[in-house]
Amino acid sequence: MRDNTATASATGGFVNLRRLEVAVTSPEGATSRPFPFDIATRRAIDAVVVVAHFVDAGERQVYLRSCPRPALMLHDGPSGPREGNLWELPAGLVEPDESPRAGAVRELHEELGFLVEEAHLQRLGGFAYPAPGFLAEQQHFFHVAVDPAARLPPAEDGSPLEEGALVVSFPLADALAHCRAGRIVDAKTELALRRLAEEVG
After folding, report:
1. What element of type H or E holds 103?
2. N or C: which end of the chain has fewer CB within 10 A?
């Protein structure tokens, strides 16, 4: 791809936007005519998704937390605002000085209250691009077995988005049923839960 010129930008927020004039080259070597394209960037680009789980009475349980999403609540399209309080797995951005594994340890502490060692986290498949037409973010997936009795109050990150979140444990099979029924609608959460089900049987 050839990046010709930046025609506009919006910076200084959680997401920075660049409007570019670009041309793309196909695998066969043909180059398109230039066209405008918007690219979003952030100070921290990649993210982690963590499934904390345990077995109770022979049934696998997973932890979910509530999370408000202002982008949904402030949606101004034809359908108007959308339900923005979602049930999700703990997740968050990897800081520039962190590895994905270290970021997963931190997010688990901030959002659920578990303190785990990096070595206890297991990869849950490869990374995924959640919005490749808009953002170069890679989401890295991990899972870890935890002891419910060891859970502390979530440390949180100081953001209003994490204050007072609800945390629940839920049977994995039921969580997947809620995904199929459209009651859990966060894509990264469904992907990680399905990968866990494949991993642990």
Report:
1. helix 100-111
2. C
Cα(42)–Cα(134) distance, integer angstroms:
12
Residues 112 and 184 both lie in one domain: yes
Q: Which strand (E) or helix (H) includes residue 139?
A: strand 139-145
Q: At what angle do helices 187-200 and 172-180 cross, to 10 degrees?
A: 140
What does the pLDDT look like over 95-106, one tens digit per residue? 999 999 999 999
Interatomic CA distance for residues 186 and 200, integer angstroms: 21
Q: What is the average pLDDT score of the chain?
A: 91
Q: What is the rounded distance in angstroms from the CA atom of residue 20 to the CA atom of residue 200?
A: 45
pLDDT of residue 22: 87
Same domain, yes or no: 17 and 94: no
Same domain, 31 and 61: no
Contacts of 53 (CB under 8 A, 6+ apart): 60, 61, 62, 63, 143, 144, 145, 146, 172, 196, 200
Number of domains in the chain: 2
Domain of residue 28, residue span: 2-41
Question: Under a CB-based contact definition with an 8 Å cutoff, are residues 99 and 76 in contact?
Answer: no
Tokens of 127: 């990374």
The one-letter amino acid at 146: V
Same domain, 125 and 70: yes
Does one domain contain both 83 and 12?
Answer: no
